[in-house]
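Structure ticket #2291
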Amino acid sequence: RTADDDDPYERVVVANADQLAIVTALADPEPRPRLIDRCLVAAYDGGLEPLLVLTKSDLASPDKLLELYGDLDIPFVVTSREELEQGGAADRVRAHLDGKVTAFVGHSGVGKTTLVNALVPEDRRRTTGHVNAVTGRGRHTTTSALALPLADSDGGWVVDTPGVRSFGLAHIDPTRVIHAFPDLEAGTEGCPRACSHDEQDCALDQWVADGHADPARLYSLRRLLSTRERREGD
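Resolution: structure written out below.
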């Protein structure tokens, strides 16, 4: 990632990973779909499989947030605070991690490190923090990325990363994001050179109109591509 969209310096979060687990609380702190979109763009650009892990479902329903990503066919796991504390969430998350190197990314206070702790041997665990009641932000308890072997796994690893407050995309090549949409990529053959896939002459509109792909998929692609042009708070 970059610190912001105008920052020319890339900050490496993880290397040689297979999967990006985007951990988001449904409340306390409130979810930020724009950050999720940005993480998805980075995952698609880097060739990582995305996984949504939604925590604190006892505080808010996941339905509205999941509706935003239903057309992307992203696997997801929904957990509650009780499940995180008692370890019940770990088994369902672990089913998506076997044999893969998975980087966990998310805001501080969303339960990311608590979940990672439940997935790794006890002697490798990290400390956890709490959400500030005034600011609604978590306290950073992870200051560097750490790769940990997944307990009871066939070669799986998890990478706990520091909590992020922003996710710049200055380093992203938007032309690579389309590769994550094979049902749409074939329709770009008729696009003008350097097409942004969100302009008047984009061939994808006709591709969808001819019934080759779901219109909702094109909407999702364009929403993700446009997130690079907008600030996270927009």
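Closing remark: The first helix runs from residue 33 to 46.
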